[in-house]
Amino acid sequence: MFKLFAVFLGAMLLAVSYGGLPGGYTDRPELIEDPFVKSLTSFAAEYYAKKENIFLSRLKVTHVQTQIVAGVNYKLDFTGEIVSDISGKLATCNAVIYVRFDQTQSVTNIECH
Hints:
This protein is α+β, with helices and mostly antiparallel strands. The chain has helices at 2-17, 35-52, and strands spanning 25-27, 56-69, 71-82, 90-99, 105-112. The chain has one domain: Nuclear Transport Factor 2, Chain: A, CATH 3.10.450.10. The protein is built from two helices and five strands.
């Protein structure tokens, strides 16, 4: 019984620290300049480069949301300059990166326009 209570209490403390209850996405404007979020953005851009053979530079995070699941989903909106385009066109991207509690990261979705 105590173990169940401890797990429940831990989940609630985690939910409060991330600003929401498990299930829904929560806007996190304070994370836009966060170094960890910037590293997740680079991780997503590298994944996109491997998947679509389109390389992005000068990444800029514009919106961050988090969702608590069995880890944390980070929903990121960001822009990046298309490297192969000499006109300096910007791509606008939306990505979801799943980060397990052991810090394992995976891109679950990414779209760039």
